[in-house]
Design brief:
With 461 residues, the protein is of the alpha/beta class. It has 3 domains: 90 residues, 3-Layer(aba) Sandwich (Rossmann fold), CATH 3.40.50; 203 residues, UDP-N-acetylmuramoyl-L-alanine:D-glutamate ligase; 138 residues, Alpha-Beta Complex (Protein-Tyrosine Phosphatase, Chain A), CATH 3.90.190.20. The protein contains 15 helices and 21 strands. The strands form 3 sheets. Strands 8-7-9-6-10-11-12-13-14-15 form a 10-stranded mixed β-sheet, with helices on both faces. Strands 16-17-21-18-19-20 form a 6-stranded mixed β-sheet, sandwiched between helices. A 5-stranded parallel β-sheet has the order 3-2-1-4-5, sandwiched between helices. The protein is globular, with a radius of gyration of 22 Å.
């Protein structure tokens, strides 16, 4: 069944796992469109409290009693199919769909959907695109995978036909979307608990690009040969970006300031356009900016708006976020949880003035740690001290096949200083005993490792 999500039809939609960053964003958009929203999650949070304050019915924990005859039940992929609310909905004959399918339905209500995909950089690139479009007066609806101060959260509901969202490849979720502009930042090995191999991943991204209509656009990173092979097979419009000769949108003459932020010359098809200055560090963010600039080119947004937006953009939370200073040292948190992301984060850190770089890494999921172990072990070059905490399970269960100590031993074989420390308090104590002025402490991972930096700054324990 295809539900009508227009404002003329009022539905009651229940979300199982409503506290997730994407689930909550979709719920907010639907509420703004006049639909009644209810939902549950294992625990309440600032996200669920904000939804409740805006009129949603929020339940803590999962129970079949929470299914009070909604028209539709939406569930996150982290929820097991034996969830009591899903079972109750099916017993009552209520349709249930996953989060990605719900977002795909929502996209039907917008004419120009901009979907940002890729193994790395989605949240930052989506945020850049979102703010450029917002500052250009396009009034887009925004759904971002991180907290952005400029919109006071991760979602903003506009009144135009434009929608901007991240497009995650996990379980091929993005194949349910309806992109007018599909941005593909990169293709890499990840989510190997679902994908059989790299060919399966490549096929998924090719399928995503193939969803774009002939009059639509694919924005593709020119430095990824697999992506370029996909782009060559498409019947829609394609615009490429990168640092190499041949990219339509290109950055040249890059320089970095004392905080690692880049200034570069922007070229379009070999012609100089303007100088661009970023307020977030790293070469990888130059690429994210070029992707956003490519979208602005398609939408005919003036370069002055682009320049002003990018020069003021200081990033989303948990993306090289400076948490504070302690006795002459700096504490930074980053969401990096893939080897390529760790390398990019540490490369950006090298451009900061520093004495030593501490990297406190919390592996994210057992399968990712297991399948990418050797790649992880080689990703900490540039870190003087590496601390590895317990693996953050997320949606998975510990089968005993992989442990953080395996990663520590692999890092040591590469001649680096690495140690396994189980508890956050012990990690803070270990750092405190040897922290020196000028040191840079990075907390890295997609779980709750940011707490280490916060505890260190507060002097705990």
């Amino acid at each position: 069944m295809v539900f009508d999500l227009s404002k003329d039809t009022k539905l009651h939609i229940h979300f199982v796992g409503i506290g997730g960053i994407s689930m909550s964003g979709i719920a907010r958009i639907l509420m703004e469109r006049g639909h009644r929203v209810s939902g549950s999650d294992r625990n309440t949070s600032p996200i669920t409290e904000k939804l409740k304050a805006n009129g949603a019915d929020i339940y803590e924990g999962h129970s079949r009693d929470h299914i009070k005859d909604p028209d539709l039940v939406v569930y996150t992929s982290a929820v097991d199919q034996s969830n009591p609310e899903l079972e109750a909905a099916r017993k009552k004959g209520i349709e249930t769909i996953d989060r990605a399918s719900m977002l795909g339905l929502l996209m039907r209500e917008y004419r120009y959907n901009v979907a940002v995909a890729g193994a790395h950089g989605k949240t930052t690139a989506t945020s850049m695109v979102s703010l450029i479009m917002e500052n250009a007066g396009l009034d887009p609806t925004l759904l971002i995978g991180g907290e952005l101060d400029q919109i006071d959260g991760n979602v903003k509901v506009g009144k135009s036909p434009y929608l901007v969202t991240e497009a995650c490849e996990y379980k091929e979720n993005f194949l349910r979307f309806l992109p007018y502009i599909a941005v593909i930042l990169n293709i890499d090995r990840d989510h190997l608990d679902y994908f059989r191999d790299f060919e399966h991943i490549r096929s998924a991204f090719k399928g995503f690009a193939g969803l774009v209509p002939s009059h639509g656009w694919v924005v593709a990173y020119q430095g990824d040969p697999v992506l370029m092979d996909i782009a060559a097979s498409l019947s829609c419009n394609v615009i490429t970006y990168g640092l190499n000769v041949g990219a339509q949108i290109a950055a040249k003459n890059m320089t970095f300031d004392v905080n690692g932020c880049a200034t570069f010359d922007l070229y379009y098809e070999g012609n100089f356009i303007d100088g661009i200055r970023l307020a977030i560090p790293g070469e990888h963010n130059v690429l994210n900016a070029l992707a956003a600039i490519s979208v602005s080119r398609i939408l005919e947004i003036d370069i002055d708006t682009v320049k002003t937006t990018l020069s003021a953009f200081t990033g989303t939370h948990r993306r090289f976020e400076i948490k504070g200073h302690l006795n002459g040292s700096m504490v930074v948190d980053d969401y990096a949880h893939h080897p390529a992301e760790i390398r990019a984060t540490l490369a950006a850190a090298q451009n900061f003035p520093h004495n030593r770089i501490w990297c406190v890494f919390q592996p994210h999921t057992y399968t990712r740690t297991k399948f990418l172990l050797e790649d992880f072990a080689r990703s900490f070059e540039g870190a003087d001290r590496v601390i590895v905490t317990d693996i953050y399970a997320a949606r998975e269960r510990d089968t005993g096949e992989i442990h953080s100590t395996h990663l520590v031993e692999a890092i040591k074989t590469n001649g680096q200083n690495a140690v396994y420390i189980q508890g956050f308090e012990d990690a803070v104590r270990h750092i405190s005993e040897d922290l020196q002025a000028g040191d840079l402490v990075l907390t890295v991972g997609a779980g709750d490792v940011y707490k280490v930096g916060e505890m260190l700054l507060k002097g705990v324990p």
